[in-house]
Amino acid sequence: MDLIKGIETRRSIRAFTNTPVPEETLRKIIKAASNSPSYTNTQPWEVAVGCGKRKEDLSRIIRDLAVRKAEISPDFPMPKTWPAEHVTRTKEHGTRRLAALGVDRDDEVGRENLRLMNFEFYGGPCAIFLFMDGTLGEWSVFDMGLFAQNLTLAAVAFGVESCLQASVTIYAREIKKFLEVPESMKLMICISLGYPDNEAKLNTYRAVKRTPDEFTKWYR
Ligand SMILES: Cc1cc2nc3c(=O)[nH]c(=O)nc-3n(C[C@H](O)[C@H](O)[C@H](O)COP(=O)(O)O)c2cc1C
To answer: What is the number of the ligand 1 atom nearest to the C-alpha of 118?
Structure first.
């Protein structure tokens, strides 16, 4: 697939069919992502791939925690404030996603159901968890982002769609326990993957993007 086409067509998918992604395809996607750049080639990423029964078991555990609103243990603190402009965008994002489902912003049950879908990996047959050593700092976080982006783009080339999910990382402690990942590692992100359910209402939602002229200054 053409690189630009892949970049421009990638979008977050929040409803997947239950068709499994062949392990060979997942290996090719991860192999492509392994070529990501990193600070002095440190390659901080450690990858856990959850599929089949193990993924279902993990989903049950974290969904149950989410339903009970159990104590959270994210390795990266959740943002508490945003600049006003970002608040506008995040609110618009939330409203548009709910609208795609036909759920009103005041509908607490509808909102809660949407939140819980995160912990079901949006029905995806596969959930990938990216970890890094707990002693690493911001530059490694940057590297992890590059890896995650390359992974999601490589997936597109194989017809596999994805959703990055910080929300899932709130239960980092339990996820690490389940995956037998040392407590000292940091869970950066969860990525749900699969084939898109093109009939699903939630997938009709498109994020509104700033135009390059809104965020680019040229110095000539
Ligand atoms: C770091 C990060 C965390 C995210 N966490 C979530 C999440 O927990 N749940 C979710 O549904 N989408 C999540 N997303 C997806 C964003 O909402 C999405 O990328 C954004 O709205 C732009 O839409 P697009 O990916 O379709 O271009 C996350 C994206 C990033 C980069």
So the answer is: 9
Q: What length does the chain have?
A: 220
The ligand 1 atom at the shortest distance from the C-alpha of residue 168 is 8
d(CA 11, CA 83): 24
Give pTM, 2 decimals.
Answer: 0.97
The mean pLDDT values, 10 residues at a time, for the chain of 220 residues are 94 96 98 98 98 97 98 95 95 90 89 96 98 98 98 98 98 98 98 97 93 98
What separation in angstroms does the CA of 85 have from each of 82, 90, 166, 210? 8, 9, 21, 12
Residue type at 16 in one-letter notation: F
Residue nearest to atom 20 of ligand 1 (CA): 207
User: For 3-205, CATH number?
Assistant: 3.40.109.10
CA of 167 relative to ligand 1 center, distance in Å = 9
Residue whose tokens read 């940057």: 142
